[in-house]
Amino acid sequence: MGWLISRVVSTALLVFLFAEFGMMLGYAWGVPSFGAALGAVVGAGVMVAIDSLRARRLLVWLRGDRSDEAPRDPGIWGELGYLIERTFRKLDKRAAVETSRLDQFLSAIEVSPNGVLVLTRGDNIDWCNSAAAYHFGLDPLRDRQQRVTNLVRAPAFVAYLQSDDHTTAVTFQDPRLRGTLLVNIREFGDGMKLVLSQDVTERERNEAMRRDFVANVSHEIRTPLTVLAGFVETMNTLPLSEVERRRVVELMAQQTQRMQSLVADLLILAQLEGSPRPAVDSWVSVKRLLDQARADAVALSAGRHRIEVTMGGPAKLAGTETELASAVSNLVTNAVRYTPAGGSVDIAWQIREDGSAEIGVRDSGIGIDKAHLARVTERFYRVDGSRSRDTGGTGLGLSIVKHVVQRHGGELEIASEAGQGSTFKLVFPAARVRRDDPPGAQIPDISEPPAVQRAAARDQGRSAARTRT
């Protein structure tokens, strides 16, 4: 009420002053009463004019961008302008905070790997993040306010969008991405929809691999178990001669060994997938690896193949010896198994010009058709299942080899043709290769007869003696 009293007093004072002035002029003209009334009217008019001017200034400020201060006129208009300005400043500050929060929220959604698509009541695109734009093939700016079904025409998505039941998600193949999308729709606001998309291609692939893996393991174990069960029933129900009994026991031992090999390979794969990458400060002698691989090949071949080893320079590899030995041994034993008697198996170590190195295993065996090369490292994948079982393989050897070489930062290279033999190379990066084996180290070929080995050893000793003298 203070401003109202002040306002009334100031107005009355101004009117009184103008009335007194009018009365003085009225005395001069002989009409004092008329002069007083006229002065009062003029005073009131001046007061109204001043108020109108101040109100107009405040109105002009309100209609502008309000970046400067409100008019600081005395009286009610100045106080009213200050209060309005303070209210606007508070609102602007609050709006800035909310805008900042919204920007942060949209930025978080923008970097999300999942797609977020906002649709209006008529299924027009209101906003989408980059992931949704990639999933559905949209342009975040150009396609705004476009009807989504005009741009995304996958039948499963259109049917799901237009249905009334959005409680469950829908999965469909995206031919453009050559993958699988999982889409959820949630309604909110006044008929608006939130479309959430996720690329589940890798998940679907892993799930399919898991199903195949379980099916293959079950099949691989069930087959020898069925054989063992049949032999046990035979021994319990039929009178067998000693020769027949020994034959049955021998076959049972073979099936047991097959299951043991399968379980051992499965444990190796589980260990490879669950353990950290090998350190780069543990060095393994390449000569020792090749020695072991050659010994495995000679034992499996039993003199039926020509086995040669070439050491292209002394060196060591950084990694886990047991894993490296397992990878090389798998390649060598595969080469012997799939090479007919009289064929050859060559094991070679070579350092490349860029500092990387390779362990190669080449055979003159049956080879692999090019159509199978991309899948031979898959678990339980067999080019010829019956032949693989006859040779005693579990179908996991090349998968173990691939895991080992990848854990050591390298890669597995395969070159083969049907009937022309195969070449498998374990390629290791330069960071895991060191040339520091003792000079002059050579690997004798124990696949040759002992007499030839002793002659080679004598020649090597004589050469070394001549060098010392």
Task: Give a description of the structure.
By secondary structure, this protein is of the alpha+beta class. It is 54% helix and 16% strand. The protein is built from 13 helices and 13 strands. A 5-stranded antiparallel β-sheet has the order 2-1-5-4-3, with helices on both faces. Helix 1 (2-29) crosses helix 2, helix 9 (286-301) runs parallel beside helix 10 and helix 10 packs antiparallel against helix 12 (397-407). It is elongated, with a radius of gyration of 46 Å. Mean pLDDT is 79; it is low at 439-469.
Give keywords.
disordered C terminus; five-stranded antiparallel beta sheet; 13 strands; 13 helices; alpha+beta; 54% helix; 469 residues
Q: What structural category do the secondary elements indicate?
A: alpha+beta
Approximate helicity band: 40-55%
Strand content: 15-25%
Residue stretches low in confidence (pLDDT < 50, at least 5 long) are 439-469
- Average of the residue pLDDT scores: 79
- Annotation, overall tally of beta strands: 13
Order of helices and strands: HHHEEHHHEEEHHEHEEHEEHHEEEH
Give a quick precis of the structure.
This protein is α+β, with helices and mostly antiparallel strands and 469 residues long. The chain is built from 13 helices and 13 strands. The radius of gyration is 46 Å and the shape is elongated.
Furnish the topology, listing elements before pairings.
Layout: H1 2-29, H2 32-63, H3 76-110, E1 115-119, E2 125-128, H4 130-136, H5 148-151, H6 155-162, E3 170-174, E4 179-188, E5 192-199, H7 201-237, H8 242-274, E6 283-285, H9 286-301, E7 306-312, E8 316-318, H10 321-337, E9 344-351, E10 357-363, H11 385-391, H12 397-407, E11 411-416, E12 422-428, E13 433-434, H13 450-468
Parallel strand pairs: 7-9
Antiparallel strand pairs: 1-2, 1-5, 3-4, 4-5, 6-8, 8-13, 9-10, 10-12, 11-12
